[in-house]
Amino acid sequence: MLEDTVINEFRIKPISPEKVVSSVDGETAYSLESIPHGKCDTPTKVEEMISNIPVTETTLGFESDTECDSDPYDLITYNADKSENARYEYGDHAPGEGKYQEECRFKPGEKVLCLMYEGYDAVFPGIVVGPLTEEYLRKLYETNEDMQIGYSSADEAVEEWLDWNWDSVIVRPLVRLKNDWEEMGDTVMVNRVYVFPYKRFEV
Q1: String of b and e for 40-76 (b: at least 16 CB within 10 Å)?
Q2: Whether the predicted pLDDT of 2 surpasses 90
Q3: Cα 198 from Cα 111, distance rounded (Å)
Q4: Would you state the pLDDT for residue 145?
């Protein structure tokens, strides 16, 4: 069932040097701090709540996250100036469906900031490669042990890949990071709504 919309603020903090594998041209990654600001039950209240949140020098942006059975259903990200960054609406993002490879506001070759959870809880700069493709996912399956444990075949991975995860962008990280069980490769998948305009923070 649909849950109330949760409002979060994204702030950045210095990242532990131990989490950095490599960096290009002095680029910097940051640790992510997600700050909850409460719940809302109408779009008007969402806009009002976000408009009243003070912006700090370390604010990357905001999100309004409406989930259904613990999965993203309607998720909007906002820039630090509170303008809309991107929106995800559940459904039709798998190959062959109407919103497959939904257009990203950033074009291939653009430098961006990417927000990633999945054990990283980090914000890092990268270069947009393009939208996630079925071919990319199949190739990833051949080299990713975690995917091979979770899925019996590349076909199964493609078939069961969540709608939320299909709405992703392939990015070449300019700062490669590691978490407790893996490190980033030459390219990574980032949810489209978590790709933000490039900015350098002083922290």
Answers
A1: beeeebbeebbeebeeeebbbbbbbbbbeeeebbbbb
A2: no
A3: 6
A4: 85
Judged against a pLDDT cut of 90, whether residue 42 lies above it is answered with no
Asked if pLDDT for residue 1 goes beyond 80, the answer is: no
CA–centroid distance for 102 within its chain: 14
Six token digits for residue 106 = 């950033």
E strand residue ranges, 41-165 = 59-68, 71-79, 84-89, 111-116, 122-131
* Alpha-carbon gap, residue 107 to 104, rounded angstroms: 7
Q: Among 196, 76, 185, which Cα is nearest to 125's?
A: 196
Where do the domains of the chain lie?
Answer: 5-197
Query: Tell me, what's the pLDDT at 88?
Result: 98
Question: How many whole angstroms separate alpha carbon 179 and alpha carbon 118?
Answer: 9
Owner of token pair 């962008």: 169
Name the strand (E) or helix (H) holding 156. Answer: helix 154-160
